[in-house]
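Inverse folding, one chain.
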């Protein structure tokens, strides 16, 4: 089975900047061990975890309130930023001692705090514009990297991949088609912490621009990092085997004869959203009036741009349209946003696709995931692997 959801990050590109840092100064590992030994796993267990940082939501809110629209039906409601985008124990994991452990939520809070300091400086009218220094660039790179892999959609992608793989490998087991096999939530959190440092290398050192528009038109959502590519589906790198029909695959899988070797059946699994590797530009709406943009490396970009009138409206239309398309559960804006409540929402679509010749299992993935919510710690416990 082959996939292209930033697999290259863990294999082809070698060690991350953290690996190189530890190689240069192994004592860092002692500091990390000390933190884990002396930090209690109990705080944050049982709490509601923000899957989008609260400080970010506050920048779009009015008096702590957001207007939130549920993506799959467009229904709207007012919600306080203390509860918007929260899921109980979403980042809680089971540690090696078998205990519920909330320390990852504290790590995420530290990453968010580091990035917030950078964004506060960029948004401050009292700070003269200047490029990000190395420390600031790394804070933002880590923040963006974590945000791409910390979301409910990303966990659900992993669940669907795991379910498809398990059922494909055991397709001859009676009743396997009626079983939903779900990787434990620990798998998502383990993957997230392993890949994030290599993923941050993709964003570190990019030139940045803060774009300001003259009207409060930007919105936000539960997948707020926009990866700008050359086309809607250019991130999909199909393999030669992708065009094989189910009949051809069955024929190739037959017992080999003297004049024909058995051919391996390669299944191509891929997400419907692009990965970081394909993005030449990255954008994050920070407030209803500001957009943070990371461009290609070695490109000269202005530190700040201001758009007015029709240009500002056109940019907001493009950004908001991208956010609505990539949102998974919800989209949000200030209650005073002039057009948000009437914005059209597309029908939900698939988040994982498979090229396997058109089996019943791959056809199950052609629509929106059901159930939509990922598995949560201690809840929704179907058969797990």
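Residues assigned per position:
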């Amino acid at each position: 089975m082959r996939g292209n959801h930033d697999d290259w990050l863990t294999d082809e590109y070698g060690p991350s900047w953290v690996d190189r840092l530890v190689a240069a100064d192994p004592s860092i590992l002692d500091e990390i061990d000390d933190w884990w030994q002396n930090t209690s796993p109990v705080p944050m267990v049982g709490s509601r975890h923000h899957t989008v940082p609260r400080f970010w939501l506050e920048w779009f809110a009015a008096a702590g309130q957001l207007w939130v629209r549920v993506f799959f039906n467009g229904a709207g409601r007012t919600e306080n930023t203390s509860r918007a985008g929260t899921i109980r124990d979403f980042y809680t994991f089971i540690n090696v001692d078998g205990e519920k452990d909330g320390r990852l939520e504290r790590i995420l809070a530290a990453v968010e705090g580091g990035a917030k300091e950078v964004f506060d400086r960029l948004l401050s009218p009292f700070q003269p514009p200047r490029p990000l220094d190395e420390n600031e660039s790394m804070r933002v790179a880590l923040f963006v990297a974590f945000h791409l892999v910390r979301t409910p959609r990303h966990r659900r992608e992993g669940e669907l991949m795991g379910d498809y793989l398990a059922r494909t490998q055991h397709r001859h087991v009676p009743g396997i088609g009626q079983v939903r096999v779900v990787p434990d939530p620990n798998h998502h959190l383990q993957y997230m912490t392993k890949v994030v440092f290599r993923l941050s290398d993709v964003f570190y050192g990019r030139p940045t621009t803060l774009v300001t528009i003259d009207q409060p038109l930007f919105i936000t959502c539960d997948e707020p990092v926009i990866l700008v590519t050359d086309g809607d589906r250019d991130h999909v790198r199909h393999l030669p085997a992708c065009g094989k029909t189910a009949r051809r695959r069955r024929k190739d899988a037959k017992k080999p004869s003297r004049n024909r070797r058995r051919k391996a059946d390669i299944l191509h699994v891929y997400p419907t959203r692009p990965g970081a590797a394909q993005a030449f530009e990255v954008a994050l709406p920070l407030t209803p009036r500001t957009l943070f943009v990371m461009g290609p490396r070695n490109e000269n970009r202005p530190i700040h741009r201001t758009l007015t009138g029709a240009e500002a409206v056109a940019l907001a239309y493009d950004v908001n349209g991208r956010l609505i398309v990539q949102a998974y559960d919800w989209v949000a804006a200030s209650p005073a946003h002039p057009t948000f409540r009437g914005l059209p929402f597309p029908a939900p679509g698939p988040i994982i696709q498979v090229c396997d010749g058109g089996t019943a299992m791959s056809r199950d993935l052609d629509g929106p995931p059901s159930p939509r919510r990922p598995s949560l710690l201690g809840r929704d416990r179907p058969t797990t692997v």
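The chain has two domains: 7-38, 39-85+97-151+194-247+267-368. The chain is about 35% helix and 15% strand.
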